[in-house]
From TrEMBL:
It comes from Virgibacillus halodenitrificans (Bacillus halodenitrificans). It comes from the Bacteria. CDD domains: dTDP_GD_SDR_e. Coiled coil: none annotated. This is dTDP-glucose 4,6-dehydratase. It catalyses: dTDP-alpha-D-glucose = dTDP-4-dehydro-6-deoxy-alpha-D-glucose + H2O.
Length: 345
């Protein structure tokens, strides 16, 4: 049994979770950080390279829906907080088959809640120790040209992924209402940045462009998303985990509403400058020439935008990264990754 108090992070080998683990280890060297991740296709230990030897860090490979395993973690460590990222996260996969989404996003969340509740209740700390659930603005559904989601917008999920996340949010809230558990939920807009799985839009664009393949854009590319740099998201989670009010939901936005096609064009123009030699090798004048429009995703939400004034006013947070500078950092990271993958093949 470890005597130190531990922060349990789930899904810390994924995109946002791995950025968060690195950020927390750097900022809070006194915290003991336990990262549980099943390492599905989306989890990658390379995202955490360099942290293995850090003395206050522990990685456990396992499934959050495995009740025995979660109970053993709570028995072994004095878990004083949970930040719950682990999820099946890709909308297209949920449209193909929702089974894993229900297992991880709903059952997994319930197992974590139940185990934390029992452990903290036994210690008389149910109202003190915090369960922070990471969610998405997709639970609110889709918007027309105008308006924004706020924390009071009723859930109206449109695909199995967002339905499973909305279900998880409801469960988390219910543990707050029913047992007085100290829960908090954050719903953020689309994240971008280093360490994202290659199946998602931005890495797909960069990898296809560098390989000289066509860059697929769903429908007319005019779907609007609000883009949040992953490090800004991590900073908001840190702030809300420590200072957010019990039982509350906070939206986290990037303040960068853009159509997918605009984001893709910006990435191509950054690549045109950074990778002019590669451009010459594939006989193009601009990577934008590779853009091609494909059949739209089923139930493709038209626009998401979140009103995060509650977070800005109550906790003084704001997104710091401009979209252009965040995209430059992101493109540079994936170019390096693409080159190292190309070298190893
Ligand atoms: P990701 O798919 O990159 O990472 C998910 C991680 O969870 C992976 O490492 C995977 O191995 C792990 N995992 C999956 N099932 C598991 C299980 N049963 N047990 C233990 N680990 C399991 O996802 P992400 O983009 O980093 O998203 C993290 C969280 O943030 C999710 O809850 C997601 O809904 C939410 N979110 C993401 C975005 C975004 O733009 N990426 C936006 C808003 C909210």
């Amino acid at each position: 049994i470890h005597s130190k108090k531990a922060l349990l992070i789930t899904g810390g080998a994924g995109f946002i979770g791995s950025n968060f683990v690195a950020y927390m280890i750097d900022k809070y060297p006194d915290y003991q950080i336990i990262n549980i991740d099943k390492l599905t296709y989306a989890g990658n230990l390379e995202n955490l390279s360099g942290l293995e030897n850090y003395p206050n860090y522990e990685f456990i490979q396992g499934d959050i829906a495995d009740q025995n395993l979660i109970e053993s973690i709570f028995a072994m460590y004095d878990v004083w907080g949970v930040v719950h990222f682990a999820a099946e996260s890709h909308v297209d996969r949920s449209i193909e088959d929702a089974t894993a989404f229900i297992h991880t996003n709903i059952v997994g969340t319930q197992v974590l809640l139940q185990t934390a509740k029992m452990d903290w209740e036994r210690k008389g700390e149910l109202a003190q120790r915090r369960f922070h659930h990471i969610s998405t603005d997709e639970v609110y559904g889709s918007l027309g040209e105008k308006g924004m989601f706020n924390e009071k917008t009723p859930y109206d999920p449109r695909n199995p992924y967002s339905a499973s996340k909305a279900g998880a949010n409801m469960l988390v809230k219910s543990f707050g209402y029913t047992y007085g558990m100290n829960i908090v939920i954050t719903s953020s807009s689309n994240n971008y940045g280093p360490r994202q799985h290659e199946e998602k839009l931005i890495p797909t664009v960069i990898f296809n462009a560098l390989s000289g393949n066509s860059i697929p854009i769903y429908g007319d590319g005019r779907n609007v998303r609000d883009w949040l740099f992953v490090m800004d998201h991590c900073k908001a989670i840190d702030l809300i985990f420590h200072q957010g009010c019990t039982g509350e939901v906070y939206n986290i936005g990037g303040g960068n509403e853009k159509m997918n096609i605009e984001v893709v064009r910006t990435i191509c123009s950054i690549l045109d400058e950074l990778e002019s030699e590669r451009l010459a090798e594939i006989n193009k004048n601009s990577f934008t020439e590779l853009i091609s429009f494909t059949k739209d995703r089923l139930g493709h939400d038209r626009r998401y935008a979140v009103d995060d004034s509650k977070l800005r006013q109550e906790l003084g947070w704001s997104a710091e990264e401009e979209l252009k500078s965040g995209l430059i950092k992101t493109v540079e990271w994936y170019v390096k990754r693409w080159k190292s993958l190309a070298k190893n093949h």
